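Work Package 3 (structural annotation) set out to generate three-dimensional models for the target panel prioritized at the project kickoff. During this period the team completed the workflow that converts sequence records into C-alpha coordinates, so that structures can be stored uniformly alongside our sequence database. As a representative example, we reproduce one entry of 88 residues exactly as it appears in the project archive.
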Amino acid sequence: MASPIPVKEKKLMEVKLGELPGSLLMQAFTSKGITGAFQRGYYGYYNKYINVKKGGVAGISMVLAAYVLFNYCCSYKELKHQQLRKYH
Protein backbone atom coordinates (compact mmCIF):
# COMPACT_ATOMS: atom_id res chain seq x y z
CA MET A 1 0.00 0.00 0.00
CA ALA A 2 1.55 3.28 -1.11
CA SER A 3 1.49 6.23 1.24
CA PRO A 4 -0.33 9.38 0.06
CA ILE A 5 2.55 11.65 1.20
CA PRO A 6 5.63 11.65 -1.07
CA VAL A 7 8.74 10.19 0.55
CA LYS A 8 10.69 13.44 0.12
CA GLU A 9 8.19 15.42 2.20
CA LYS A 10 8.08 12.95 5.12
CA LYS A 11 10.03 13.45 8.31
CA LEU A 12 12.77 10.91 9.01
CA MET A 13 10.81 9.28 11.85
CA GLU A 14 7.79 8.78 9.55
CA VAL A 15 9.72 6.99 6.78
CA LYS A 16 9.30 3.22 6.67
CA LEU A 17 12.36 0.99 6.60
CA GLY A 18 11.84 -0.01 2.96
CA GLU A 19 11.60 3.64 1.89
CA LEU A 20 14.73 4.72 3.81
CA PRO A 21 17.37 4.36 1.03
CA GLY A 22 15.24 6.30 -1.43
CA SER A 23 14.51 8.97 1.15
CA LEU A 24 18.19 9.41 1.99
CA LEU A 25 19.14 9.71 -1.68
CA MET A 26 16.57 12.50 -2.18
CA GLN A 27 17.99 14.68 0.61
CA ALA A 28 20.08 17.73 -0.18
CA PHE A 29 23.69 17.05 0.80
CA THR A 30 24.85 20.58 0.05
CA SER A 31 26.26 22.84 2.73
CA LYS A 32 22.94 24.71 2.89
CA GLY A 33 20.97 21.47 3.21
CA ILE A 34 23.18 20.08 5.96
CA THR A 35 23.12 23.40 7.83
CA GLY A 36 19.34 23.47 7.58
CA ALA A 37 19.09 19.92 8.92
CA PHE A 38 21.26 20.76 11.94
CA GLN A 39 19.25 23.94 12.50
CA ARG A 40 15.92 22.07 12.42
CA GLY A 41 17.31 19.48 14.82
CA TYR A 42 18.60 22.12 17.20
CA TYR A 43 15.35 24.09 17.25
CA GLY A 44 13.32 20.90 17.69
CA TYR A 45 15.48 19.81 20.63
CA TYR A 46 15.48 23.30 22.13
CA ASN A 47 11.70 23.65 21.94
CA LYS A 48 11.06 20.16 23.30
CA TYR A 49 13.50 20.03 26.22
CA ILE A 50 14.91 23.49 27.02
CA ASN A 51 12.22 26.06 26.20
CA VAL A 52 9.42 24.70 28.42
CA LYS A 53 7.46 26.27 31.28
CA LYS A 54 8.29 23.62 33.88
CA GLY A 55 11.68 22.43 32.78
CA GLY A 56 14.27 20.60 34.76
CA VAL A 57 17.83 19.61 34.18
CA ALA A 58 16.90 16.79 31.79
CA GLY A 59 17.58 18.68 28.55
CA ILE A 60 20.93 20.06 29.61
CA SER A 61 22.00 16.77 31.19
CA MET A 62 21.31 14.94 27.90
CA VAL A 63 23.58 17.38 26.06
CA LEU A 64 26.25 16.92 28.73
CA ALA A 65 25.95 13.12 28.56
CA ALA A 66 26.27 13.20 24.76
CA TYR A 67 29.35 15.44 25.07
CA VAL A 68 31.00 13.09 27.57
CA LEU A 69 30.19 10.02 25.43
CA PHE A 70 31.53 11.71 22.29
CA ASN A 71 34.79 12.65 23.99
CA TYR A 72 35.17 9.15 25.44
CA CYS A 73 34.70 7.63 21.98
CA CYS A 74 37.27 10.02 20.53
CA SER A 75 39.89 9.21 23.19
CA TYR A 76 39.12 5.48 23.51
CA LYS A 77 42.17 4.50 21.48
CA GLU A 78 44.50 6.10 24.02
CA LEU A 79 42.47 5.05 27.06
CA LYS A 80 42.38 1.33 26.24
CA HIS A 81 46.17 1.10 26.62
CA GLN A 82 46.10 2.52 30.14
CA GLN A 83 45.38 -0.34 32.51
CA LEU A 84 45.26 -0.04 36.24
CA ARG A 85 47.71 -2.57 37.65
CA LYS A 86 49.00 -3.19 41.13
CA TYR A 87 52.70 -2.72 41.54
CA HIS A 88 53.68 -5.54 43.86
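Residues 31-50 form the longest helix (20 residues).
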